[in-house]
Write a structure and sequence with these properties.
Helix content is about 25%, strand content about 20%. It is an alpha/beta fold. The strands form two sheets. Strands 6-5-4-3-2-1-14 form a seven-stranded mixed beta sheet. Strands 7-8-9-10-11-12-13 form a seven-stranded mixed beta sheet. The longest helix has 11 residues. Bound molecules: zinc ion (ZN) (2 copies).
Length: about 300
């Protein structure tokens, strides 16, 4: 099993990171995509994988940084001759989201125009996602893999469900947090996993600042909390990802971030603090994610 980090950033557009996306490739070559944030389709191609060859997408939640590229991923798959509908598993609202995109939706003109090509008429199913809204428990199963999910704590559930997941395949297990505050559900999903890919959006210094200034509702996991989760779950290796631009040197991000972050603290040195704080509790193998980073299990 191969895990490729297609996107490792968060909600701001970041010159150095695409938004969320993780691609799992089984030993038999079958691909499973988890989240579809802006930039991940391009990174998928950079990783030498065609979107047309990825039959399965799990959307952990419907924040834009986890779904923005879904139209591009789907249209590219259609143009590149995907056969059949992509399977899309996600929270309540996923059917509504997908139904408003293509035929009769936001990209109707593109759909209509491109449908006139005979070649594109031959695989119109590629533009009709097979959407399955999931509930805690087994979210998806085929002859190669089993994916279980549970609610995590990120957005109030009455507004939108958010899922963490665990995938079992090739005799290995890998868990993905999506976005979440520290929660018991994620400890259980990740229990004994060969790999945990977990969000780690802000360093402690940012979290303190956001608490003091009341910016946003804090619903992410700090590096210290992530170390505790990885230790309690007994994972064999950890990938920290979904970094909230704190290390950026971009003047545009620094300017835009003024309302959100203590921009005077921003810089690459903060990643050392992140590692130090994860290490307070977790001593196992640790990967600080970057786009196109690959972990083989
Ligand atoms: Zn996010
Ligand atoms: Zn989110």
């Amino acid at each position: 099993m191969k895990i490729t980090m297609l996107g490792t950033g968060a909600a701001f557009v970041d010159p150095d990171r695409a938004q969320s996306g993780v691609l799992v490739t089984l030993d038999n070559g079958r691909h499973y995509l988890f989240d579809c944030g802006a930039g991940i389709t391009r990174n998928m191609v950079r990783a030498n994988v065609s979107p047309a060859d990825v039959p399965f997408v799990f959307l952990t939640h419907l924040h834009h940084d986890h779904i923005c590229d879904f139209p591009l991923f789907t249209i590219t798959g259609w143009m590149w001759n995907r056969q059949g509908s992509p399977i899309v598993v996600g929270p309540k609202g996923t059917k509504d989201f997908c139904s408003r995109l293509f035929e009769g939706g936001a990209f109707h003109t593109d759909y209509e125009a491109r449908s006139h090509y005979p070649a594109r008429q031959r695989n119109l199913e590629a533009m009709k996602p097979d959407v399955r809204e999931c509930s805690p428990g087994i979210a998806y199963q085929d002859e190669h893999a089993t994916i279980t999910c549970d609610w995590v704590e990120h957005i109030p559930r009455e507004v939108s469900e958010c899922f963490g997941v665990r995938m079992e395949a090739d005799g290995k297990s890998v868990a993905f947090s999506g976005d979440t505050a520290p929660c018991e559900a994620m400890v259980k999903l990740a229990a004994g996993a060969d790999l945990l890919v977990h969000e780690c959006t802000f360093p402690e210094a940012f979290i303190e600042h956001r608490k003091k200034t009341g910016v946003g509702i804090f619903a992410h996991t700090s590096p210290t909390e992530l170390g505790i989760i990885a230790k309690r779950a007994g994972v064999k290796a950890l990938v920290a990802t979904h970094f909230g631009h704190f290390e950026s040197t971009s003047p545009v991000i620094k300017n835009a971030g003024k309302l959100h972050f203590p921009v005077e603290l921003m810089g690459p040195q903060l990643m050392d603090d992140v590692v130090r704080d994860i290490r307070k509790n977790y001593a196992g193998p640790l990967h600080i994610a970057h786009d196109l980073m690959r972990v083989d299990l």
